Amino acid sequence: MTTIIQYISLILVLLVSGVFWGTWFSLSRSIEITSPETFLENGRLIIKNLAVPMRMLMPLTILTMILVLWVYPEKSSGGFFMSAMSVILMIITLWITVRIEVPIDNRIKRWTISTLPDDWKAIRSRWQYYHTIRTFTALGSFAFLLAGSLFH
Question: What residue numbers bound the domain in which 16 lies?
């Protein structure tokens, strides 16, 4: 049973990490050079496509990760501690998403070219900075969960 739960959890963490990695790798690394029109269009599309699925996927992922810890057979092993570190990193990822990224996304959704605030580039840079951090906390979470599964 432990192996099945670990497998499901790994798939879910991979999905969450993949969403952030894909956005970072394909868009965020060049976001500073996009036009305001492109920035707004891409931002709205990404927000529209991800808001609802990620609202369900991230909590479900964390719950399955906690379940992995619950059923982990050797609570004092290195594998358990790697799995626990994975949970911590994913909680940090969720915290960055909910406390920093989503409020910025909610502002961006309302912007138009004519209502773009004077500090929109600073806001975009803040979003990018924290998106990079959460991308790598999510990838770290996957790496630790995989290691914890392998050392099981």
Answer: 2-150
